[in-house]
Amino acid sequence: MMNVVFAAPFPMPATLKFIRALGKLDGVRLIGVFQRAPRGPERRLFSDIVTVRDCLSVQQLDLALRQIRHRYGKIHRLL
For residues 37 and 44, what is the distance between their CA atoms, to the nearest angstrom? Predict the structure, then answer.
């Protein structure tokens, strides 16, 4: 299983398009890092979502990625 982390501040229409495409891939565990997590059907495409106060903060993103690595192991892709 490939761990793919998708980081974005908010679930904008273009962001949701990428999430839907990633969610259709076999062998991918999709994990999100957001300030405000998606709702509705897109939320179910994620195995897990980590929320942060500021998704553009290097320190907060680093902490979120460390949490994800601790839970799921190696991160294969960060988008």
Answer: 11
Distances from the Cα of 74 to the Cα of 3, 28, 30, 53, 54, angstroms = 7, 13, 13, 24, 23
3-state SS class at 7: strand
At 14, the amino acid letter reads: A
DSSP code per residue over 9-57: SS--HHHHHHHHHHHT-TTEEEEEEESS---GGGGGG-SEEEE-S-TT-
Determine phi and psi for 6, rounding to 5 degrees. -110, 115
Task: From first to last of the 79 residues of the chain, give the pLDDT tens digit.
Answer: 999 999 999 999 998 999 999 989 999 999 999 999 999 898 999 999 999 999 999 999 999 999 999 999 999 999 9
